[in-house]
Recover the amino acids of this structure.
């Protein structure tokens, strides 16, 4: 082989080697890694557009819709197509009667991916949408779509209980239970919207679009239909709820102009209040109201940050707070049935016993001069067990409270132990978020709080006076209206504590049941039926006997055909006007309803809270409730 | 007339010694290319409301013109090339100069085009073949290749390289370099001398980088070749999309006209420099191997002609052409698969483009010419 030939062979070999390299690479790409590249090609060309599922409705116990969905026009902007941003936003703000700044803030929300159209305005009038459609050159990249938003069929009904919808937070997005939720989507906030999110939220569908390198849609490859969310049926009766709210509003506004606070001589503030209506036989909530309140429709239309801040400002008196479950107050005399029950259990009280009811009480051997007064300045002598409750005689209870202190036991919490059996000091477990646990204070609590705040709580030791105060629902005891209702429910049903519930069942949009929420027992109180009957009997007297503290409020009520058991309370808080309480069970012979009302700084229980309960009971018992009327009777 | 024909068709006459395999494989590649160019462009044209066959029709016209050019080039004796290559070379250097003046058209930061009588063409494409011929003409005259001859040969290539560098078009420059080295090797230059030449070239390149003569976009392309994931949004994007197209083709491809990467415009420059991605995506490994096999046959015929040539000029001419084609195939296909830097080199006979098509057919014509006249 000549030199030239050899050199040409070498050249050919180099080329052959290069070709071999090409084939090797080709083998790698097209045979070994093909699957990965096929996936990436699909990712390139296929865009998944979510097709939102409608959220389930919320119905009342009679199947009446309370919350459903309506279609609204949402204005969106595609940032890729938007030109002359400022001018377009100015035009848009003009058209939608909003501000350029607000639109701009929405537009630059970092939670949206670049190719996603960003929703900037919800609830646009149809005329505006038509105008945008007719002037595409004035609104480059601006589009609109119809979306479903919450419609509150009964307006202002039960906003605390229902909750509202808000955009999912970055933290929630990391939560496994929200894996199918995208940024910008709405999820339940507060109330049953939050509690039953998993049922109410449907499964979004997906539209598969074919897109080119510029992101332009070239065709539809397929679609998965959205699965609508399930409907939630509440135990709430919408009509009773409406009556309850209306009564609470009326009571507050009337109290402010007619009830005089004895201490200051001014009208009471009646700044806030709450009402709970329970079915004592299974714990289902029939109505729950809290004042002040808010308009859930404002949330549906997209609440601005400023509006939200106003709602959370202290001067607005926290309208978002559901005081029926989160408001914590001293129970005052509405607590006495439970203290009486504890005294019976401990053997201090018997249903046929008589107990001295002097106007004042001094701890034997106490030389400090501390005097505990009855609410009325009369020595009633020896009174029956029933009369102790009917007259709400404080001194009888002081005596029992002292006995509990004397026999407090090694842990020092004999009294507290009995009271906690009724559910006080602990969450009831209601299916509404935000519940407060209340407080049954004891020696260790007192020690801890003294250590933490020695200036506010200078006394570290649990003293007889602490028990004495607690015996009339005062001192450092705190209960929520809901806890009180659960306790009265146990009195009414023979001693069973039920977990309060607002959900009755979950069902598909066509009505097929998915899940039922039966009454759930969470405890039994350690009393025998005759003991409970004695307390119930006494509570009837509160409403019906001439000496009863609530007879004024129930004047004219057909007690002969429908008996009512109840208890007033006037809870004192240092530096504030007293809270007005009333708790009732009706019919007392065959308990169907427990109603608890509290008005913050509303005066005596007999004056404001008792008439509220009366009017709600009239509604529950189909007695055609008249106008709300403040009672003139001033009792504890 | 009859006498002429007779001489052409005589036993050892040129017409009897056409290389039908060479013509067939060249036509095969060009037809393959027509299908690929159509696939690469039809969907975008349709979307724009244009005739989906717009590029296809132009490419068919180029192909027909190319075949005519091949026929003309094959007609006259290739040794005339040796005589006239100097003149053509001069004209081309002038044309390359013109490209750099405002007469030249600029696309994507590079001046490559020149318009003449309403036609656009790229002098650099023609220059490739001209340099091949010039080098063959010069080196074939030498009895022994000494270092001074190596410098002179390098000098011949250096003039167009310098002008093309100013456009700039690194890819074409590298084609010249490859042709120069291959021609020197086959002409019998000493290995030592070639190493010296390469050393000087590398040194020159380093200086060029440091002086900032190399343009921004070239450095970016080179960097994206070295690390495609570093900048996926800009420089590496083309490369990644090209790899996705080829890789997603798998063994048998996604079917002609069915490639999503192709139809949805994910690969830029797809009918020209990145035409191989259409083959990869729609015809798969099998189709890509078939295309490479066609090129292999083309190159094999070229080598065979170089060996059969009756004179050194023919051998060097054929070797230069084979090197020119092989280098372009390897760099073009390699760059679509991420194993070669992305440079503006078309796939010979397959990529869309008039000048490149005509030049390559002229090259085939020259190979044919050498083959036809190997006995005289």
């Amino acid at each position: 082989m000549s030199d030239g030939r050899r050199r040409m062979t070498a050249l050919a070999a180099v080329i052959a080697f290069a070709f071999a390299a090409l084939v090797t690479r080709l083998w790698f790409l097209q045979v070994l890694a093909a699957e990965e590249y096929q996936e990436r090609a699909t990712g390139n060309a296929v865009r998944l557009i979510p097709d939102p599922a409608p959220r389930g409705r919320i119905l009342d116990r009679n199947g009446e819709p309370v919350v459903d969905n309506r279609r609204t026009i949402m204005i969106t902007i595609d940032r890729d197509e938007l030109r002359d941003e400022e001018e377009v936003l100015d035009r848009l703000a003009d058209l939608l009667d909003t501000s350029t700044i607000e639109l701009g803030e929405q537009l630059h929300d970092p939670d949206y991916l670049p190719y996603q159209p960003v929703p900037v305005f919800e609830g646009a009038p149809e005329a505006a949408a038509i105008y945008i459609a007719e002037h595409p050159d004035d609104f480059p990249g601006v589009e609109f779509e119809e979306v479903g938003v919450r419609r509150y069929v009964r307006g202002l009904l039960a906003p605390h209980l229902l909750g509202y919808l808000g955009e999912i937070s970055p933290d929630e997005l990391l939560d496994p239970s929200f894996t199918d939720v995208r940024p910008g989507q709405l999820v339940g906030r507060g109330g049953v919207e939050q509690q039953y999110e998993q049922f109410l939220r449907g499964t979004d569908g997906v539209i598969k679009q074919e897109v080119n390198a510029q992101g332009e849609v070239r065709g539809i490859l397929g679609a998965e239909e959205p699965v609508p969310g399930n409907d939630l049926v509440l135990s709430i009766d919408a009509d009773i709820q409406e009556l309850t709210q209306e009564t609470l509003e009326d009571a507050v506004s009337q109290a402010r102009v007619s009830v005089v606070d004895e201490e200051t001589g001014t009208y009471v503030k009646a700044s806030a209040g709450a009402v709970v209506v329970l079915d004592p036989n299974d714990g289902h909530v029939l109505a729950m109201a809290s004042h002040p309140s808010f308009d859930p429709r404002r949330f549906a239309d997209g609440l601005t940050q400023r509006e939200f801040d106003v709602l959370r400002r202290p001067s607005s008196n926290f309208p978002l707070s559901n005081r029926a479950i989160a408001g914590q107050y001293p129970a005052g005399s509405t607590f006495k049935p439970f203290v009486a029950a504890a005294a019976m259990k401990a053997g201090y009280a018997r249903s046929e016993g008589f107990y001295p009811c002097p106007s004042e009480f001094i701890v034997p051997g106490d030389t400090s001069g501390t005097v505990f007064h009855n609410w009325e300045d009369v020595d009633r002598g020896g009174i029956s067990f029933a009369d102790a409750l009917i007259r709400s005689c404080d001194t009888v209870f002081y005596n029992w409270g002292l006995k509990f202190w004397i026999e407090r036991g090694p842990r020092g919490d004999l009294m507290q132990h009995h009271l906690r059996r009724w559910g006080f000091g602990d969450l009831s477990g209601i299916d509404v978020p935000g519940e407060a646990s209340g407080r049954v204070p004891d020696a260790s609590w007192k020690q801890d709080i003294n250590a933490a705040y020695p200036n506010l709580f200078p006394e570290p030791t649990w003293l007889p006076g602490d028990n004495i105060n607690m015996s009339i629902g005062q001192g450092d005891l705190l209960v929520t209206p809901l806890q009180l209702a659960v306790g009265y429910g146990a009195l009414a049903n023979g001693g069973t504590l039920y977990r309060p519930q607002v959900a009755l069942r979950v069902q598909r949009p066509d009505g097929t049941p998915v899940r039922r929420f039966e009454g759930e027992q969470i405890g039994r109180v350690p009393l025998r039926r005759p003991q409970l009957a004695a307390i119930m009997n006494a509570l009837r007297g509160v409403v019906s006997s001439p000496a009863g503290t609530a007879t004024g409020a129930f004047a004219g009520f057909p007690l002969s055909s429908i008996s009512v058991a109840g208890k007033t309370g006037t809870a004192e808080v240092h530096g504030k006007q007293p809270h007005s309480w009333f708790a009732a069970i009706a019919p007392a012979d065959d308990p169907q309803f427990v109603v608890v009302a509290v008005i913050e700084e509303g005066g005596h229980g007999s004056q404001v809270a008792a008439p509220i309960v009366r009017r709600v009971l009239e509604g529950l018992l189909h007695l055609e409730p008249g106008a709300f009327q403040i009672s003139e009777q001033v009792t504890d | 007339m009859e006498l002429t024909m007779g001489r052409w068709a005589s036993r050892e006459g040129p017409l009897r010694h056409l290389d039908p395999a060479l013509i067939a494989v060249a036509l095969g590649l060009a037809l393959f290319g027509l299908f690929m160019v159509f696939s690469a462009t039809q969907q975008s044209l349709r979307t724009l409301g244009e005739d989906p066959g717009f590029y296809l029709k132009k490419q068919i016209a180029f192909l027909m013109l190319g075949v005519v050019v091949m026929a003309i080039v094959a007609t006259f004796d290739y040794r005339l090339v040796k005589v006239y290559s100097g003149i053509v070379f001069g004209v081309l250097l002038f044309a390359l100069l013109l490209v750099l003046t405002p007469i030249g058209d600029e696309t994507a930061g590079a001046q490559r085009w020149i318009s003449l009588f309403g036609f656009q063409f790229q002098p650099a494409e023609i220059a490739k073949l001209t340099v091949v011929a010039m080098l063959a003409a010069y080196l074939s005259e030498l009895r022994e290749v000494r270092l001074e001859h190596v410098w002179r040969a390098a000098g011949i290539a250096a003039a167009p390289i310098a002008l093309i560098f100013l456009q700039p078009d690194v890819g074409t420059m590298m084609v010249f370099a490859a042709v120069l080295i291959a021609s020197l090797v086959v002409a019998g230059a000493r290995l030592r001398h070639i190493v010296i030449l390469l050393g000087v070239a590398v040194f020159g390149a380093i200086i060029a980088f440091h002086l900032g003569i190399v343009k921004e976009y070239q450095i970016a392309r080179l960097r994206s070749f070295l690390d495609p994931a570093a900048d996926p949004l800009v420089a590496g994007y083309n490369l990644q999309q090209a790899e996705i197209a080829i890789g997603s083709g798998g063994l048998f491809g996604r079917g002609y006209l069915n490639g999503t990467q192709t139809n949805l415009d994910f690969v830029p420059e797809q009918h020209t420099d990145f035409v191989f991605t259409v083959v990869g995506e729609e015809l798969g490994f099998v189709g890509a191997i078939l295309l490479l096999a066609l090129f292999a046959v083309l190159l094999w015929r070229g080598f065979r002609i170089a060996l059969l040539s009756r004179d050194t000029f023919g051998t060097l001419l054929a070797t230069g052409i084979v090197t020119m084609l092989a280098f372009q195939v390897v760099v073009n296909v390699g760059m679509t698969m991420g194993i070669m830097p992305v440079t503006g080199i078309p796939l010979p006979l397959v990529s869309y483009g008039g000048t490149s098509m005509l030049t390559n057919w002229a090259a085939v014509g020259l190979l044919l010419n050498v083959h036809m006249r190997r006995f005289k």
